[in-house]
Amino acid sequence: MWKKRFAAVMTTVVAAGAVAACSSGDKEPNSASSEGANGAKAPVTVRFHAQNVTFDKTMMAPVIAKFEEKNPGIKIDYVGMTEPTSDEVTKKIDLLAASGEPLDVFLLADARSYSQRAANGMLEPLNSFIEKEGFKFTDEYKTDTLLDGKYYALPGTFNQWFVIMNKNHLDEAGLKVPTIDWTWDDYLDYAKKMTKGEGASKRYGTYYHSWADFFLLGMWNQPGKNDIVWSDGSLNMDHPGVRKSLEIRQRSEMVDKSAIPYADAISQKLAYRPLYFNQNVSMMAMGSWMIGEVGGTDQFPSTFKTVFAPMPRNEKSDPAGHAMSSSNYLAIASTSKHKEEAYKFMRFFSTEGLSIMQKYMTSWKKEDSGKLLDSIIQSTKNPENIDKESLLYVLNNTKPVTLPPALPYQAEVYKVYQEEVEKLLLGQQDIDKSIAAAKERLQKLVNANKK
């Protein structure tokens, strides 16, 4: 049923978006190795698609050079995608796949996107490659990508979630850098105290991005049952963290007015990087990919010091120091004509390749994390604007927790939930109605997907 639904959706996408698809004029040949003029085999070209803001060509250049040096028969064609959000990148990859664009390796931003595309047959299973190489997945990587007994991706970056804070705004409000003892109520007080001004020039204390994750803030610090639908299809909507998530958003956006309203975020298609680096927002919850960015990049210069705080807990009585961790996912298109070569690149990239970049923490267990962190900080334009003391405090005092394996229809789960929370944030219904409506719709969705 899921595959039929996906096929129908993609047929519509292709019909509506054919004009937007990449022109054939800039495509690289993606056929199997051919004989050259002197009878030698021409190198195989593997295409790698990822969001340009995540991996730009400058960052990719030394990685590709090293890989091609080790694998002289394989060339890498990096396609940096310019869509502004990861959701739009994923939609573009779907469109390219449906329109017959040659795809080899591509990056998926989260577990929802990964599980959905694994379920619809878009991704090549990796078990045979892993068995041939002979390594144990969980000994090699921090993030387990197993779905129904198969691996469809290798994890790339490893993202530990924390709070980034503008040190100037913190000092101006007379606030201390928080420790693991702080709660979401403390967070909201900080946001209120750092909010300043009115109208177009208003500076907000915080901002919640449009990702579905930001509707579940009160679940990010839960080491157990931390998702709204569990792996066995049972609903977890009665978890107190769900209600807390809605209370956080409602209070800060609609009562304290210390967070950018959701209506503005979606109508203006706001992006979190410009908001933070332009100092329109004082703090926000983000992942550890931001370590290398808050020190300044060509696109977003750093003009102030950033300090780091742990993810808040829900109540004083809750265990402290837990925070969600996540990865992005490197996958091979099931339609790729160069699966073996694509796997070789993906395996290299997910291990020593990402470390060469000196930009992100990785999911590879064999990396030297301390050395890599120092390299990431020193490679920024203004390393002095990264408060290493608070960063190390957060990393050393945080226990990473992960979500359960994603359901094949995980994207639909979050879509249903998000639609009901949106009604709350747009003033159309209260918290009780939002939770009740989401529970009813989610149960119907689970029932419809039972095998």
From TrEMBL:
Q: Which UniProt keywords apply?
A: Signal, Transport
List the protein's name. Sugar ABC transporter substrate-binding protein
According to its UniProt record, what is one Pfam family this protein matches? SBP_bac_1
Q: Which PROSITE patterns match?
A: PROKAR_LIPOPROTEIN
Lineage top rank: taxon: Bacteria
Q: Does the keyword Transport apply?
A: yes
Task: Please state the span of the N-terminal signal peptide per the UniProt entry.
Answer: 1-20
InterPro entries on file? Bact_solute-bd_prot1, SBP
Q: Give the family this protein belongs to, as stated in its UniProt record.
A: Belongs to the bacterial solute-binding protein 1 family.
Keyword Transport belongs to the record: yes
